[in-house]
Amino acid sequence: MPHIRIFLLLLFGLNCCANSVISQSNCNRDPKIDKLVKKALISFRESNFEQSLKISRTALNAATLSKDFCLISRSYNIIGANYNELSDIDKAIFFYKKSLYYANKTSNDSLKSNLYNNLGNMYCFEKKQFDEGIRYYKKSVAYSLKINDLKEVYFTNVNITWAYFDIENYNQGYLFLKYINSTKNKYSDGSTEVIVDMLNAVYLSHKNKNTAANTFFLSAIEAGKRSGEKTDLSNVYLEYSKFLDKINKHKEAYQALVNHNKISAEVYNEKKLKKASIAGIGLELDEYKRQIDKIESEKVEQSQSLKKSRIIVILFILISFILLFLIVTLIKNIRFKKKHNLELLKAKEIAEEASLLKTQFISTISHELRTPLYGVVGITNMLLEEHKEISRSQHLSSLKFSARYLLSLVNDILQINKIEENKIVLENLTFNIADEITVIKNSLSFLSQKNNNRISIDIDPEIPEYLIGDKLRLSQILMNLVSNALKFTKDGQVEIIVKLSRVEGKLNFLHFLIKDNGIGIAVVDQSKIFEKFVQVGRKESDYQGTGLGLSIVKRLLGLFGSTITLDSDLGKGTSFSFEIGFEHDLVKTKNIIDEIEVDLTSNEVYRILVVEDNLINQLVTKKIIEKNNYICKVVDDGFGALKILEDEEFDLILMDINMPLMNGFETTKRIRLLGIDTPIVALTAFDKDEITDEAISSGMNDIIIKPFEPVKLFKIINYLIKEKSAV
Ligand code: ADP
């Protein structure tokens, strides 16, 4: 009758539980409920199950209301124990598990240990699910060890031993029995003494140590009688009867069995009575109610979460709308942008067209201006040379000055336009800085005399003799700065200082300083003067300038990757400075010099044909050529050229481009078609870059821009003729 054993085992658990209830204080306890739980426990220990269950019920309801998991767990534990005592095993397991569920929500390890022990009892002895039961016991031991409760370990080991003996696994059971015997004196009490003696007796009987077994059985019976624990005694009598039967003491065995049956019947009847009396307690009803309450509260939670999810749905819809709105706006924006981009593209095209028109306009205007200016400057020069008597004429020098001014204006506008259109690429020419600066000084001597200024040059001797770079652009920068210095200084001094500031590999960085002690520039004007057409604080009569000089200087320096620094005090003077790196490479220098070397020593008399429709220009060009002792013939147009070439041979042809009836390109093409390979040089007021391609494809050999330096013209003539005869 193993179910009787359970009663005893359960008491162990509850004993421990009772201890821990008192010792462990990590439950967040309501003192009133705590008191109720203790009362229920006392009633249980007095076997007043009805009373114990009633009080437990009240405690459980109160603990549930105050959500005190520890007290809920303890209430369920006592209820489980009561059902355990009343042999209602399923209910006992149900309430123990409930208790364990709440215990696991707390940190009360003692409580957990008790519950695992009690469930171990249920599964080992009642359900006969031994493995499951042992699993519970082991957990119980683990929790007890965790809190160092060795008494609880002792009790659980008694249970484990009994469980192993029950399935006749004496070897395993003996391991635990040994531990129990070694600690018995420390932890044993009245209730365990009976069982421990009985377990020893059972083991010794198994080992056929009958005398010793008999002694333990008798000791257990004595202890059972002393403690008044009927259940324990009933168990001992049963095991004793089995033992006596085994050793063939049948009569004594029978007597022991009678004793067992008698006590069992008493216990059974008592229980039956108690069971009947608690039938009306309605714990199950309570449990159902609690479950309904739980369902209700879940319902509330659900409706709350429903509300929440409704809010979420609303939010979702709202966000969807916003997103939709955003997408629509985005699409609209993209469409608008597309449209706008198209407009922008159109605007860009228009702007590009406008820029092209501007370029064309500037080039046409400058061409149209250059052509007559060529005549004006040329004729003025001729007059001055041929009629020395009028060379002092104020009118003539005014004419010359105005023509030159106009020419420089046209050239400046053209140059600025070219820089802005990114059409200028710096060239690599070899030069000597001292020579370049001397040329500038000489060409500005007229200006320096006019304002009674002295020009001093200071060139660092460390600077290499030959440098490579765009000397023409550099000269242009220096010309502008030095002529400004001379223009805005009277009876003063203009210094041109060039220093070698640093050398990086082949690059020699030259620092240029153009300094005057003239009128200076006011601070407010200093940032403006680099803008186009800005001239500050000057009267018309003071001087003539285009207001483009510094603007060109700044842009040209930009091409060199340099910037200009201005330092000026009104009334004290002005200095402009900048730095440019030039290459110093002797091999390269030699190559460059070799390339441009031209033999000007020729004493040949060449025959030159000039094809030009403008009568003044015809006159000027013819004069220049004849002055060099060459023979010059002039025709008015392309047809004239073709005709004269049928009869005569020339060494070189100078061809105007812009002519009526047939332009210079067309004429050149036709000349080439006739098989005439005489060098043809375009003599034009067009900008060189604009016509280079067409000139080459028509068969021309070179281009000279009007107005030109006669020296340059003869250099080209000589070079081309020499080149041709070399072939
Ligand atoms: P321009 O000399 O043709 O007027 P620039 O662009 O060269 O045009 O110069 C702009 C203005 O800067 C000049 O009109 C003058 O007022 C001022 N400026 C330039 N250089 C000097 C200088 N060395 N001393 C005083 N003023 C100067």
The largest beta-sheet arranges its strands as 2-4-5-7-6
Strand content: 5-15%
- Total E-strand runs: 12
CATH level-two architecture of the largest domain: Alpha Horseshoe
Task: Work out the helix count.
Answer: 26
Bound molecules: adenosine-5'-diphosphate
The CATH C-level name of the largest domain is Mainly Alpha
Helix content: 55-70%
Q: Note the gap between the termini.
A: 137 Å
Give the oligomeric state of the chains in this entry, treating copies of one chain as homo and distinct chains as hetero.
Answer: single chain
Per CATH, what is the topology of the largest domain?
A: Serine Threonine Protein Phosphatase 5, Tetratricopeptide repeat
Mean pLDDT: 82
Helix-and-strand structural type: alpha/beta
Say which CATH homologous superfamily of the largest domain is assigned.
Tetratricopeptide repeat domain
Radius of gyration: 62 Å
Most strands sheet: 5 strands, mixed
Signal peptide: 1-18
EC number: 2.7.13.3
Catalytic activity: ATP + protein L-histidine = ADP + protein N-phospho-L-histidine
Coiled coil: 278-305
